[in-house]
Input
Amino acid sequence: MIARTPLPQYLQRIGQPAFRNAHGTVTFTPEQVISLQPEAGGSARYQQTVRELCQIVGEAVTAGKRLRCLGRRWSISPVATTEGWLLDLSDVSTAKWLGAGELHPTVAAHREVAHILVGAGASIRWLNWELHRAGWSIQTSGASNGQAVAGAIATGTHGSSFHVGALHDTVAAVHVVVGPSEHWWVEPASAPLTANEFAPRLGATLVRDDELFAALETSLGSLGIVAGVVFRCVPNFWLDLKRYSVAGGGLPAGPLSTAELIDRLARWQFDSLLDQPLDRIWHLDAVFNPFAPDSQSYVSAYVLADAPPRGTRAEVTGEHRGDEWNPDLLQFVSRFIGPVPGAPPLVTKIGLQSEYAKPVTDSPRVWGAWFAQQDLPGGALGASLGVDCAQLGVALPAIMQAVRERATVPCVVATRFVPGSRSLLAMNIFERTCMIDMDGANVPAMADLIADCCRRLDAEGVGFTMHWGKWIGYLTREHVEKVYGDRIDRWRAARARLLPDPRLARAFSNPVVDALL
Amino acid sequence: MNPCAGRWWAGVGGALMVTACVRVSVESRAPEPSPTRMGSTTVWVIAWGLGTTPKVTAECAGTHVYKATVHTTFPGFLLGLVTLGFVVPTHVDYVCAAEAGTVEGEPPAPPPP
Output
C-alpha cells in the first residue's frame, strides 16, 4: 500500500520544523513523503513492492517530479536529498535465501558461500541479525549499522576488510526499477549469479552485463530505484579485537615512529606489524591524534578467532552500549571550548583516550556485534578520503599538519584499508586504497578544516576520492572527472543505457548528482 | 568587555537555552527504528503533577515505539525553579519502530568449520 503525506502535514505530525537526516547535518524540503506499507510477507511483499515502485516511478515521470529513496536518513552529505518525492522503503524489509535451484550452476556448486536477496530498505542491523541466526554473515560493513542496505551500497560504504573490499564489492546482483513498467535484474556477465529462469519469475528482465553492474554497485541512487540486492555471505565467523598503543611501544613490531608506522601501513605489512598471519587479520585500522601522532596513536586489528562455547552472548541487534552521549555535547564542546587556545588538542586527546585507552573485551564477537554502532554523538561531521596507498606517506602527514596548524577544532584521523573495486564510482578505485577518515563536530570550523586538507592534498598532487555519504563539500565536477577519469564516462554511458528517457534520468537525479556528474 | 568575549559568552548562553538540560531515554531492543515515523511535543506538568499526568500518544500506525526520550531544557528548568515546581515544561521525543522484516526460504547449512 502506498501512503503519501505532503511535507507540511508530515512535519506537523512529527512535531518538527524541518526534515533532517539522522545526524542533523542536512535539512531539506521534499514535496511529499511516500511510504510503502506491507500487506503481506515474503515473496508476495517483495513483488508487491516492485509493482508499487513501478507505479510511483510512472506517476513521478508523468507529474515531472523527482524521486529519491530516503534509506535510513543515515548519510551525512546531501546525497539522499530531494525537492521532489521522498520514498521510504523501511517498512517493507524482506530477505530471501536463494536456493541451489535458483542459482547459476557454476555458483550452486560452491557450498562455502550463500546468497541472500535483501529488500533495498532493510537495514544492515536487521540483515546482520537474520544472517547470524542462520549461521551466516556479511563479509564487511561500515562501523555503524543503521544504514539501509541499498543506501550503504549506493554511497560506497567501506570497512577495512583488506581481503574483501567495500560493502558493494560483496554484492552479486542488483534488482532495479528503471521505468513505469520495467525492472531489470542485473548481474555481471563475467560472474552470472542466478539460473536463467529466476529473474523472469520475478517479472524482471535478466541483464548480464559487467559495465551496468559496475555502475549500479555505486549508483548514488540515480540509476533507477533499487528494489533489492544480493549479498554473497560467508559462514559466521568470530573476531578478537587486539588493540595496540603505538606510542607506548605496544605493537608486536616494537616501538615505531609515526613515519615508520605510516610506511608499514602504506605497504600493507600488517602481518609483520602485528605478528599475526595475514589471512587471520580480517579488519585493521589505525587511529591518530593529529595534534600529537607520535605520542597518541592506536592500531586495532580484528583477528579471526575460534568460536566460543555455545550460548556465548553475541547480540548483533539491540546492541546497547550503556548511556549515550548527549546529542548536543559534541557541538557544544567544539563550538565553545574549541576556539580556546590549546583546547582542541586537549579535547582530542581526552576523547581518544576515553575510547581507545580502555581495555577491550577479551571475548570474541561476530561481525555484526563488533560493528554495531547506532548512537553516534549528535552533531557529528566527518569525511572519508580515499587515497592510493602509494601516496599515503605524503597524504597523511599533510592532513595532520593542516589540523595542527589550524588547531581550531578537535579532530581525529583514522586510516582503513580496502583493495580496489570494479565499481565505477566507488571510493576504492586504487589497487590499494587507504580511507583516511576525519571525524569531528558539525561546526563550520570542521568543514573548513576538511576543505583545507583537501586543498593541501591537491597541492601535493595526491588524487583522492570522497565517501559519497559523508561530507563532500569540496567536490566539484572537475575534481570528480579528474580523479575518476574514464570511469565517469562509463558511468554516464551506463545511465544512458539504463534510463534512455531523459525524463527518467532527471527524475532519479538530485542537485548533488546534477552538480557533480 | 572585549566584543569577541561578549559574543562567546552570548553564544554559550544561547546554547544553554536550547540544549537539553536533563535527558532520559528508553529504547527497545528488538525492532528497527523507522526513519520517518516519529514525534516530538512539549507537555506541561502543572501543580507538581498532583492533578493529571500528561500523556503523549505515539502516532506509530501499526507498530510500537522504538525509542522515547524525555528531557527538559534550561529555560524549562528555570521556569520550574521560579514557580517552585508549579509549572514544569518537559519535552518528549519518540521514534516508532519500522514494520518487521520477513525472511523467506531456508538458509543453506554452513559448511563444517
Remarks:
- Residues 56 and 92 of chain B are 8 Å apart (CA to CA).
- Strands of chain B lie at 20-27, 33-46, 65-73, 87-97, 102-104.
- The helical segments of chain B are 3-18, 74-82.
- Residues 3-18 of chain B form the longest helix (16 residues).
